[in-house]
Each structure stands twice: as structure tokens, then as C-alpha cells.
Amino acid sequence: MARLVVRRSALVPLSGSAVIYAIGVALAGAAAFATNDAWLPLLFAFGGIAALFAWWTMRWPDQSARYLSFGAVLLLACVANRLLYLADFAFAGPRLDEWPFPAGNPESAFFKGEVLTIGGSLISVLAWAATGGLRVSPTVILRRLDRFRRQLLVIYVLSLFAVIAMQSLPGAAAALGLLLPTLQALGLVAAVLLPLAALKRALFIIPSVLLLSAPFVLASAGTGMKESIILALLPVGAILWARVRGFYSRIIILSAAAVCISLITSYVGYFRDAVWRDHLGTVTTAQVLEEYVDEVQQVGAAETIADGWLKFMSRSNASISRAWAVAIADEQAMEPELVFGPLVYVFIPRVFWPDKPAIRQGWEFSRLVFGPAYTAWSESSTAAGFYTSLYLGYGWIAFLGGAVFVGYLVAKATLAARYVGGDLAAGLFVLGMVPYALRMDEQWPVGVFSAPVITLAYVLMVVFTVGLITLQRP
Fold it and tell me: Which of 128, 131, 182 has the alpha carbon at shortest distance from 456?
């Protein structure tokens, strides 16, 4: 009976979303047939509306699951991305002039890529909910913070050692695979939960979360990766959103977040020029930050923020790279070896196989898109999008199978975390998977399929290790 309730709670809202999206696809198709340029924003808008409808009408078990569970984050990410795509379209149009290789029908590839992405996301959420994803909520750890305080403190300290190791011993960090990044993600979770366990007033909780998150933010500032910095700041944004509930206050929070994202985008561009191109790694992050502040003062804060936001919208619009993947699959050839080949060896730790082939699917996809002359001098990677890369690998069969499988995999890994490691492991796993769900559509299938399994193994290892240190059972 419980399973039937779970299925109904997911099937009804997702069926409604499918109907809404089908209407949008039909309207966009009619507009495209009439050569009306409104077809693409129509597709974006209805994709966002369908995802929002599914999230709004889903019977979440509690408020924390409504915002922090895998299905919720995946749907909300779809909504946020469609808003960004619409904003980018308003400023730059469909970007068809950026097509780097001959294609018979770029518009059709755009259309199919967007439909694959929204349709695949809805299928994954349905599979996740129907196979048990809604049974475990972040509340399993939130309601027992007093009991888990010592374990969370040890996890936070271990995560600081992981940050230091990643900065000072990059070779060893690479050999350990996802262990140190997983520890870092768990440290960010602990940075939120520790103040919630020890303090009661938002006046003290918010600055405490900011203080505990600071080492991760500073470390991410030296990576040159925009996503790393944003994820390191995610705990601060989450606690602000949870503790500040007024409508106008949340508008201010969203505006401040947009300003931060603009400055982060601007800084990352400056960092890459200063470290990767000009100084070749001979300057410290502190020096780059100091030089960047001087640059902002010279250019002006308002102009820097505006330019950063335009660049963020442009770089966040992944619809064009998805269209490239679809066009290559439909007009050239499918690439099963590129898409699925690394699954054969991804689970073998590099510490046991030092010569394990590097997984560079984004770089290899850049070769398909821009040509071998480009990758001969550039290390740049291009994301094909999870659902469109499934299609690139083996067409509709791979798309449908992969969309269902990832939802099933995350649900079963979540249930396994609770069964083996108790509420602490389950809560850490669910919260630790938030960045995974946020960025899932940017990843290749090898990363999407392997991350839940590897994360589960490392979360359980950390929980049992911490249990031995604190002499407390999970």
C-alpha cells in the first residue's frame, strides 16, 4: 500500500506536467512551422512551467524534502535554467550564429535537445519517486541534530584536512578519486547542521554558517571554477532562505545572489586570465583576489556586475551544446564508445590502477564539435548534457533507459544508505547529493551513473569511521 501511495503522489503531478509540456511542444512546433522566432522561448517557458507544476503539486513528505531531495532539486534546477535561457534569449537571440560545424537543420536539433532534457528530467523524477525516493527525507538527520553533533564536528574537521590535501597534494588527491571531494561536500553539510544543532537564533546561526563555510569558499576561489565557488556558498544561501521568510526579504536575497553570481563569473574570468594564461600558476589566490579588487575599483562595480551577469547567462545557456549533441547523432553518427566506454573502468580506483585512462569526454566532444585542430591546442571541455549525451550514445533506447535508471539508482542508493548506515548516513547522503542534482544535466552518463554509487560507499565509510572515533553508533 505504501508503494501505491508513493506512485500516486508522483504520477498525478508528473502526468499533469507531461500534459502541460505536450501543449507547449505543440505550440512551439506550430510556431516553428510558421517560421516564427517565438518557438524557442515558448519551448523554454513551457519547460519551466511543467517542471514548476510537478514540483508544486508533488506530495512531498515534509518541507525539507520539498526543497532538498533529489527530485525537488532536479525540478527546481530545470525551472531556474529555463529562466536563465529565456533571459539569454532576450539579450542574444537563439545563438544559431554560434554553430561551429555544418548542420542540415540546427533548429530541429535545438527543439529535440530541449524536449529530451525536460522529458528526461520528468521521467527521472517519476522513476525516483516510484522506487522509494520519497521515503527518505533530509528530516531524518535534521530532527536528531543533538544526537549527531559530535559526529558532525568530526566530519567537519576531516573535511578541512581534505581541503588542505586537495590544495597541497594534488597528485595524491587525484589518486584517491572522489574521496576528498565527497569529504568536502560532507563538510559543507556539517557547516550548516552544526550551527543548527548548537544555536537557536537566526542572528547567530547565519554568521556561524558563513564562518564555517569560509575555508571551502577560499579553497574554491583558487580552482578557477565558477561552479565550485557557488557550491561552496550554497550553505549560506540555504540557511538564509530557510531562516528569512518574508516576501520582500527573499527578493533581497535573490537580488544579492544574482550580484554574487555576477561577481563570481567576473572573478573566474579574471582568475583564468591571470593564472592559467598570463602567470601560468606562479601567483597565489590571495594575489589574484587583491588584483581583482583593484580591477573592479578601476572599471566600476556596476559595470563589472552587469558584464558578469551577461557572461553568466551566456555560459549557463546549455541549450546550444545539447543541440550540437543531437545534430551529431542525427546527421553524422552516434558515439556509444565516447558516451559509455568509461563505464567499464570508472569504478576502479586510480590508487590501484595508476595508469587508468583519463576520462576526458568533454574534451573529446570538443573535438567532434570544433574539430581536431581546436583540441590540438586547447584543453577546453564541452558539456553535451546528460539526456542529450544518452541520445548521442545510442538514441532513444539509451535516453529512455538512462532517464529511468538514474532515478531508480538514486532512490535505491538513498534507501541503502539508511538501511546500512542509519539516519546519519541517509541524511548526509541526501544532502550531499544536492550539488549532484543541481549539476546533473551538465554531466556525462559515466559521472551521473557512478557518482551515487561512489558517494554511497564513501558516505558509509566516513560514517563508520566517525563512529569509531566518537564511540557512537550511526
Answer: 182
